[in-house]
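Supplementary Note 2. Why include the ligand at all?

Several targets in our set were suspected to adopt different conformations when bound, so apo predictions alone were not considered sufficient. For every target with a known small-molecule partner we therefore ran a joint prediction. The input for nicotinamide-adenine-dinucleotide is given below.
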Amino acid sequence: MFRAGALDDLAPETARLGSRAFVISTPGQKALGEHCAGLLGSSAIAVYDKAVMHTPASAVRAAVEHATRLDADCLIAIGGGSTIGLAKAIAFERRLPILAVATTYSGSEVTPIWGYTENGIKHVARDAHTQPRTVIYDPLLTFKLPPNVSATSGVNAIAHCVEALYSETANPLVSQMAEEGIRALGHSLPIVVKEPENVDARTEALYGAWLGGCVLAAVGMALHHKLAHVIGGAFNTPHAETHTVILPHATAYNAVAQDAMSRISRALGGGNAAQALFDLNGSIGAPRSLKELGMPESGIDQAVSLATKNPYYNPAPVTAEGIRRLLRNAWEGRRPE
Ligand code: NAD
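The joint prediction is reproduced in token form.
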């Protein structure tokens, strides 16, 4: 469901999935969770407001136990990637269907990708059962999404699009969607951060996020996502902000992927792709250095070793020396050359 006011569809769409709905939110979005429970009436058996960033394994165990005790038969995730991530982890364990009401631009609501974090390592896997059956996109619900979260979760969706363009499994249809996603987000995010209640910009940003999620679901990712997971898992830096800082540098690293670079450049109005992404971050007030996200300088070596441990596809060869240079630039917040 995609329209202003689409939350009106919540009750009939939930009824297709079950009659004992376990409603999930973050603590900050509890009021919205309760509003949704109100719309569901007696079909809502709980509002569980304990979703947190990076989906710690301990939080998953507690949520699974709670949903099992209440005999939930479907999961309603209202929020961003953290909330949807917790719902997916429960769905994986309990084989329950998810309805997601997406209120950020993470794109998680349309992917079968789920994960959790344990002992500083982020584990990510695919399982078709964790892909939400129904997604509600209601731009009105994003009016209160703070500018910094709008900006960084939007760049997280751009990152899905960028890596889809040079994916090992890229295809022409996905590349069209990815380029359009970068264009839609590149155009709407600067407006969204200045005018949070501009319904046209909010709608275009959600559309770009949907495209970002679709391409993430469709093709494999590469170096950028690996680095974001390694750094988020090891230093508990915020997910979307970490993506935002690294993206221009990972793009510069992969400049050898010329068709992808041309498409990114075209989508952002011209110029060097990596620099256009860096400048977009500046125009939306997003963070630019890993230093300001709290990653210690001494963590660069640890991140290099984690990022080069298991070989994975990337258009440019992944070398310790190259990754160290990339991370040093990202840590300091330099404009890519
Ligand atoms: P988030 O879900 O952590 O939300 C960020 C903050 O915004 C939270 O405090 C939340 O309460 C608040 N918020 C959410 N919606 C709001 C609204 N409409 N109004 C006001 N406040 C609101 O952030 P995120 O960037 O959406 O998600 C990050 C997580 O998503 C990470 O754990 C990441 O791994 C995961 N993720 C998963 C996938 C996937 O396909 N599996 C894709 C992207 C991200």
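The first strand starts at residue 21 and ends at 24. The radius of gyration is 19 Å. Comparable summaries for the other entries are listed in the accompanying table.
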